[in-house]
Design a protein that fits this description.
It is a single chain. The chain has eight helices and 15 strands. It has a four-stranded antiparallel β-sheet with strand order 8-6-7-14, with helices on one face. The chain has a four-stranded antiparallel β-sheet with strand order 10-11-9-12, covered by helices on one side. A hairpin with a 5-residue loop joins strand 6 and strand 7. The longest helix is centred in the C-terminal third of the chain and has 16 residues.
Length: 273
């Protein structure tokens, strides 16, 4: 690839991917072809957070459109993040941190708000090149589940947008906290597995990530997303209906993220197990 020089350690080809000694926490697969998807799905099943970046509008561009859409659903159910219509322009490495620079060709970010079964508030973040199509698909998912697609502002006030950064366990806790707070973080918590969760405003999110990367602090996951200010406890029947709605919304091609204020019942979680 002209924008990426393989070092056979962090920036690797499918050949080196077959011989990784330890299962990585994160993996970015550039190209949604057969080999890349097969490799990504293997590591996703092993617990790796896998993101696929594909320049074409769909996975395996030569495949029938319907089959490609079904394949994408399968990949998403494995927990893989799929980014189509996305062009990678550069891949760089600094220490153990690899940065992939990419641009989404779809261009328009759209956020939908609605109510699911039991009055559960739902936020849907999408990236689309055809707003009418996306609106119709999102509305259909809400209606089919017994919910309603709302207007702008109908549920947004129940959420707050925050930057969330999860730092790999084993890092110097005092150093991470000092760097994060100085860079604008609002809070940091140490999780049970000794990984660290940093919360920030969306405006300070990228700055904090860059500061951590400069000091070679390993970040497991990072995103800017809607966080509910309060959650609603749902009974088993409502929980199952809401879960089906969220799953339907996540399966849509243009969906980037789905957030709700549901607090699933213990019965629901046991049912899923």
């Amino acid at each position: 690839m002209p924008f990426a020089k393989f070092d056979k350690e962090r920036i690797i080809s499918s050949t080196e991917a077959l011989n990784i000694k330890e299962v990585p926490n994160k993996m970015i697969v550039i190209g949604g072809g057969v080999i890349g998807l097969e490799m990504g799905s293997v590591y996703a099943r092993l617990g790796t957070e896998v993101t696929v970046v594909e320049f074409a509008p769909k996975l395996i561009p030569t495949m029938d459109g319907t089959l490609s859409k079904e394949l994408q659903k399968v990949m998403k159910k494995l927990g893989m993040k799929i980014n189509t219509n996305t062009k990678v322009s550069n891949v760089s490495r600094k220490g153990d941190v690899v940065t992939v620079t990419a641009t989404n060709k779809k261009g328009e970010e759209v956020t939908f708000e609605g109510y699911g079964p039991g009055g559960i508030a739902v936020m849907v973040e999408s990236m689309t090149d055809n707003n009418n199509r996306t609106v119709a698909e999102v509305r259909h998912a809400f209606t089919k589940s017994g919910g309603n697609l709302g207007t702008n502002g109908s549920v947004a006030y129940l959420f707050e947008k925050k930057g969330l950064i999860r730092v790999q366990s084993g890092q110097n806790e005092d150093l991470v906290m000092e760097l994060a707070i100085d860079a604008g973080a609002e809070d940091m918590e140490v999780n049970e597995d000794t990984s660290m969760s940093i919360t920030s405003s969306p405006e300070d999110f990228e700055n904090i990530k860059n500061v951590l990367a400069d000091k070679e602090i390993i970040v497991e996951d990072s995103e800017v997303s809607f966080i509910p200010e309060n959650t609603i406890k749902a009974d088993l029947d409502t929980s199952l209906k809401v879960f089906k709605l969220l799953e339907s919304l996540e399966d849509l091609d243009d969906t980037q993220a789905v957030t709700s204020n549901v607090d699933f019942s213990d019965e629901m979680l046991e049912h899923l197990d």
